[in-house]
Design brief:
83% of the residues lie in helices and 0% in strands. It is built from 7 helices and no strands. The protein has helices at 2-27, 34-62, 69-97, 102-116, 121-137, 141-167, 173-179. The longest helix has 29 residues, at 34-62. It starts with a helix and ends with a helix.
Amino acid sequence: MKKNIWIFGLFSGLIVAIFMVVSTALCYNDPNFESSMLVGYAGMLLAFSFVFVGIKNYRDKFNNGAVSFVQALKIGGLIMLIGSTFYVVVWLFDYYLFVPDFMDRYTAHVITQAKAEGDSPAEISKQVAELANYKEMYSSPIGVILLTYMEILPVGIIVTLISALILKRKSNAGETAIAA
């Protein structure tokens, strides 16, 4: 089971990291950040498809076609955690080495977008305060790590829950004994 989790977790992490690097590069060429967000979340969904594949692979090849919901959740959760951690580590390198001005650019983008959409000065002020909190969190590596996990984990948790629900299957041992 461990080998299965590591293989699919590393595939997941590699995919999500590649998409994240491409997404970051796109955001520096797209003042609206739209294509980069689309690429980023598409990468997360593609990467987390390995959660589904990893659970199915374990169920069908290593566990005689059966896996409980809890067991599938454990396998999927560990695959998702490996992929997410890979994403966080690559973002740390990307952020500190290549895009240390990311939060400044993102803050400017959000404020510009809010003004363009006609948000009231009170709403804009609220967004500025919220972004200032995020920027403050980004002043330490721990803050960067926490915010980056908060970005990817919800997607991974949802995919893991859905995969575990779809792939759970009871053992056929009881049916085989009855048929004999």
